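User: Is it possible to get a 3D structure for a protein together with its bound compound? The compound here is zinc ion. I've pasted both below.
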Amino acid sequence: MRCPDCNKFVSFEQGEPEAELEASGASLTGTIRIVLTCQECSTELKESTFDVEQDLQDDAESAIIAALSGLTPSVTATDEERQAWDATEWDYEAEEESTEMTDRRETVSRKTLKSGKVVERPIKFQYQKQFYGYEAQVKVTVTAAGLKAGGQTQDVTADFTVILSDETQASGMEEMV
Ligand SMILES: [Zn+2]
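Assistant: Yes, that's possible. Here is the predicted structure of the complex:
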């Protein structure tokens, strides 16, 4: 596209993605924005914002179970105790470790024949779809206060990493100028 600042037809450069994420009630929510800038003058030309909504319940329970077994002496919750846990009541904290922009081109088309065989055909460069997206690594710290496990009641803290990713077709990104 033509850049309004330097008035040239320019190539895109990938900007720094911005993540705004928050964890509470066993879910990770927020937005991640990606931006394409002008290769010549760095003016922001296109953007896309992704909504994030990730359930943390299973990961949080697994992390807590691992933390309990890592205690000395190790603690194992009974099935009954685990069924009484409510991960949505625990405290969560999210910390963005890294967010990177991703890009890929669709270089082959796949077609399934009647026989069930899949054939791949290369797509000419000018017809290839371009996708942009992100991959984010988020560290989540969970604290279960007054957790009942192994016949005891205690506060347990654990952390785990969540990997998020999404993408959109370049042509569907919003032009900012
Ligand atoms: Zn420019």
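Residues 3, 5-6, 10, 38, 40-41, 43 surround zinc ion (CB under 6 Å). The CA atoms of residues 81 and 149 lie 6 Å apart.
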